[in-house]
Amino acid sequence: MNASTSAAPLVLDVWCELQCPDCHRALTDLRALQDRYGDRLDVRLRHFPLERHKHAHAAAQAAEEAAAQGSGWAYVEAVLARCADLDRLGEPLLFEVARELGLDAEEMDTALIDGRHILIVDADEAEGRAIGVTGTPTYVIGGERLDGGKSQDGLRERIEEIADRLLSEAAEQD
After folding, report:
1. In this predicted model, what pLDDT tens digit does every residue of 25-68 receive, in sequence order?
2. Which residues contact 32 (CB under 8 A, 6 or more apart)?
3. Would the pTM of this model clear 0.85, i.e. be above it?
4. DSSP tag of 38
């Protein structure tokens, strides 16, 4: 077994909000990072619903339910692709996307009613605030916070620089 497969993956936390057009645009960079690093990079969705988006909190909970049903990232990408529709249509869109992906939309509705995922969403939001997240998307890799809410320009390259350095350092230690 070589060092690149034995080492724990590098973690990229992405503070995201499913009603955020900037987060939708960031998907291209996230896909490119996943393609480049594969299982050496663990891209983790962290919720940061913004107050100005009235359906963001419900969407975050719905994403957690989708993950519990085995389709977390697919659901996140599908909702982000329709973030303008979410603004207009609200929660019914969340269930529509669930049905389109073959998820149990009734169970998702129940999850939103009983709040079974609210603690995860609230914990993500609290942690984000504690580390200085103010908007979405915001990335944290190797302890460095990069704000994509103002501009995505150059962020993928900066994440790659950090990831390459950290992966190289990890390989040298093995």
Report:
1. 999 999 999 999 999 999 999 999 998 889 999 999 999 999 99
2. 156
3. yes
4. G
